[in-house]
Write a structure and sequence with these properties.
Blueprint: H1 2-14, H2 16-36, E1 41-42, H3 51-62, E2 70-76, H4 86-100, E3 105-108, H5 111-114, E4 123-130, H6 139-148, H7 150-154, E5 158-162, H8 175-192, H9 195-219, E6 225-226, H10 227-258, H11 264-291, H12 299-330, H13 350-361, H14 363-378, E7 386-387, H15 399-411, E8 419-424, H16 433-445, E9 450-453, E10 457-458, E11 464-471, H17 478-488, H18 491-495, E12 500-504, H19 506-540, H20 544-569, H21 574-577, E13 585-586, H22 589-619, H23 622-650, H24 657-661, H25 666-691, H26 700-705
Parallel strand pairs: 1-6, 7-13
Antiparallel strand pairs: 2-4, 2-5, 3-4, 8-11, 8-12, 9-11, 10-11
Helix pairs in contact: 1-2, 1-11, 1-12, 2-9, 2-12, 8-9, 8-23, 9-10, 9-12, 10-11, 10-12, 10-23, 11-12, 11-19, 11-22, 13-23, 13-25, 14-20, 14-25, 19-20, 19-22, 20-22, 20-25, 22-23, 22-25, 23-25
Length: 742
């Protein structure tokens, strides 16, 4: 591995002008395609095979009018007033008349006709049906909808909107996210000790991320894609892109500082070979973890994982080709200044050496304290409840949240969790269809926990009926979840008539998605763990090191989930993080968190343990390898973790509840910090100290069949002081070996 990457880096350095030009050209081409041929990103989550999706498919086929997007307009009179007053009623009527004229609107209900006015006559709602699907409703129609309600607002009435049409598409690049990049630059400047060097990881990462994100935009024109796919690609690509470049650049400057006679070309090639080997293996684990999201059987998660995996692949390719090329281009400007009077305390890696000695002095005590502490943080995870975000999770200032509160106040919390009993009567004799549906209607009205049941609505040929059911409890209440299961229990009675019952709606969909993900999670975890164990065993030629890495990752995930539940589900620190209402954690958090955090955790494992193994291979000193490994990689791992925390942390303050609760922001930020600083920098050295020489043991039979990939660079030629090669030199010129050998 190291020899191959050594030659690759040497080629990139000699052809640096061409390599840089190719990457910039690729960025321009993909950027142009992504800008001009992008499709629409949405927040809709289609999950084939689940009951609620089957019901939606039936509605699309047999009741196409109901498949369009919807908007709910909630109107409220001032405190002490009523909507039935002459001026209020007239203002509502005038506004709704204008709504009916908005382009794309198929129909509008009149709250005074449908009796959707609260008992105190202060709050009412009207439903707007669009001809297009929610994702296809243009922004101009949404703006027109808002403008149409101006007569009601002029009459001092409160107007709020909700519904599928009003959902906004998530985008990146907001101020908090930019602040994360700025923090990353500061961390890089401190870690590398150079402003020029600090700018390189950001520059190369942005090129890779730009290609990845624009590629996602381009593919969205042909593949249905959610907005979270773009955000995940942006977050993960930016974080790992910076980290991978940092690892190679730090190794380059470390080599130059240690040997002033080492040429820039030789140092760049050796950094690309040694640090680049760790980058390739680390990137492979991230790619495996993200691509494994395809086994969930949920298309939007599969697309999300593949989009992020391709972006990580680009980050790896950038690190092993573009970074060496840029290092060769900048040349001597990256060579650290000589510090002849530097003390041992200020020497590179000094604090890492001190930390390694501290941790390994009492390894058992450190290990027990760390494990017990992480398990304590994980305790709230046993109360984890999963769901999809409702309007209650939107920012308190948003129109969706205001609509949620007004509906709950005027009609009860269940009006925010409507369910639909969809009845397929195509196999029921025509003469018995209405009877079968009416019998179901009567049964549903008597079901405990049901607040209201609307009269059945049938399609033209009476082969499909829809019965709207309003629970007595809200969408995030466990009682509503229990009610969905009870309603599905009416299926056998309807089946006796030949009919099929489906329970649909947002709450039902959340339950179905959670169940499907729960079923897929064990297989998903098994795949990424087994493949990662194989990669780690090949890289480190050890069984105990990979096992330790996986166990540490499980502790990180458990602690991260526990803290996320404590904050988002139980409501602690809600004001600080801008959480409007405590709610269940989004249903695909465990899968995404496991996949993403596993890959990132293995990054730190490779960065740290590869330096330990390198020292052990040279000296066969197990104890010294630990402290030297921490000294060599501690600063880089710390900087990498701070950068990832800054990048992910910027998304914590994104107003979209999916981004927050999915742990794109919060759980990933916490998980990265815990894994880097507690598990990798503390528990790993302590565990390695307890294992001693056994950490590097590989059974003889396994040693014979395990390929030796040489990530430490033991097979590289001796360092040389080659004369700098001109840009665009001959293709067969040696990178460094054999030229002016010392």
């Amino acid at each position: 591995m190291a020899s191959v990457l050594y030659r690759c880096a040497g080629w990139a350095i000699r052809r640096r002008g061409r390599v840089i030009g190719i990457w910039l050209l690729l960025l321009a081409v993909v950027g142009g395609l992504g800008t001009t041929m992008s499709g629409k990103l949405s927040n809709e989550f289609s999950v084939p095979g689940i009951e609620s999706q089957q019901a939606q498919d039936l509605l699309d086929r047999k009741m196409p009018a109901s498949a369009g997007g919807t908007a709910r307009i909630v109107v409220a009179a001032p405190a002490g007033g009523t909507l039935t007053a002459a001026d209020g009623k007239a203002a509502v009527a005038t506004s709704l008349k204008r709504v009916a004229e908005v382009p794309g609107v198929a129909g509008v209900t009149d709250p005074f006709t449908t009796q959707t006015v609260s008992a105190d006559q202060r709050i009412a709602f009207a439903d707007v049906q669009f001809r297009q699907k929610a994702a296809d409703v243009p922004q101009a129609s949404k703006d027109a909808l808002w403008d149409a309600m101006s007569p009601a607002r002029d009459a001092s009435l409160t107007v709020a909107f909700d519904g599928s049409v009003m959902e906004s598409v998530l985008e990146g690049g907001e101020e908090a996210e930019i602040a994360g990049v700025v923090i990353a630059f500061v961390v890089l400047a401190v870690a590398l000790g150079s402003i020029v060097a600090a700018g390189l990881p950001l520059l190369t990462a942005l090129i890779g991320v730009g290609i990845g994100v624009m590629g996602v935009q381009f593919v969205s024109g042909f593949v249905e894609m959610t907005s979270t796919a773009n955000v995940l690609a942006l977050m993960i690509g930016l974080a790992v892109g910076i980290d991978y470049a940092l690892f190679i650049i730090a190794r380059h400057r470390e080599q130059l500082a240690a040997d002033s006679s080492l040429s820039i070309e030789e140092s760049s090639a050796r950094a690309g070979a040694t640090a680049g080997s760790a980058v390739v293996f680390a990137g492979a684990t991230v790619i495996i973890a993200l691509a494994a999201l395809t086994v969930t059987g949920i298309p939007f998660l599969a697309v999300m994982g593949l989009a992020a995996a391709v972006t990580v692949l680009l980050a790896v390719l950038v690190a092993i080709t573009l970074v060496p090329a840029v290092l060769g281009l900048l040349g001597e400007r990256l060579r650290p200044r000589r510090r002849p009077k530097a003390s041992k305390r200020s020497a590179p890696g000094a604090w890492g050496m001190a930390w390694g000695k501290t941790v390994t002095r009492k390894p058992l005590l450190v290990l027990l304290a760390g494990v017990i502490g992480l398990l304590a943080l994980a305790l709230p995870a046993q109360n984890l409840r999963l769901g999809l975000p409702s309007s209650a999770s939107q920012p308190a200032s948003s129109t969706q949240h205001q609509s949620y509160d007004l509906l709950a106040e005027g009609f009860g919390p269940g009006f925010n969790a409507p369910l639909a009993a969809v009845v397929d009567t195509s196999a029921v004799p025509a003469a018995d269809r209405k009877t079968a549906v009416n019998d179901l209607y009567s049964q549903l009205t008597e079901e405990p926990g049901v607040a209201h049941v609307e009269a059945p609505v049938m399609n033209e040929d009476a082969t499909l009926a829809v019965v709207s059911v309003i629970p007595a409890t809200g969408p995030d209440d466990q009682a509503t979840t229990d009610l969905v299961h009870k309603l599905r229990g009416h299926e056998p009675a309807l089946a006796q008539h030949g009919g099929t019952l489906y329970i649909a709606g947002a709450t039902a969909a959340a339950i179905d998605v959670s169940d499907k993900l729960s079923d897929a999670l064990p297989l998903f975890v098994a795949i990424i763990v087994l493949l990662a164990l194989v990669l780690l065993t090949i890289a480190f030629r050890s069984l105990l090191v990979p096992l330790k890495a996986v166990l540490g990752f499980l502790l990180s995930v458990a602690a991260s989930l526990g803290i996320t539940v404590w904050v988002f589900q139980e409501g602690h620190l809600a004001g600080l993080l801008g959480i409007a209402t405590p709610a269940p954690v989004i249903s695909f958090l465990p899968v995404v968190l496991v996949g993403v955090l596993f890959g990132l955790a293995m990054d730190y494992e490779f960065f740290l343990v590869s330096r330990m193994r390198e020292h052990h291979e040279q000296t066969h000193d197990a104890a010294g390898a630990i402290t030297h490994g921490v000294a060599g990689s501690g600063r880089v791992v710390t900087a990498a973790a701070l950068i990832m925390t800054a990048v992910f942390g910027g998304f914590v303050f994104n107003d979209d509840p999916i981004t927050k609760s999915i742990a794109f922001a919060f759980a990933l930020t916490i998980g990265v910090a815990i894994d880097a600083f507690v598990v990798r920098m503390t528990l790993v050295p302590a565990t390695m100290a307890l294992l001693g020489r056994r950490a590097w043991h590989l059974p003889a039979w396994l040693d014979r069949i395990t390929p030796n990939v040489d990530i430490e660079g033991a097979r590289l030629p001796a360092p040389t002081t080659a004369t700098p090669q001109p840009d665009e030199g001959p293709a067969d010129a040696p990178a460094a070996a054999g030229a002016n050998r010392r």
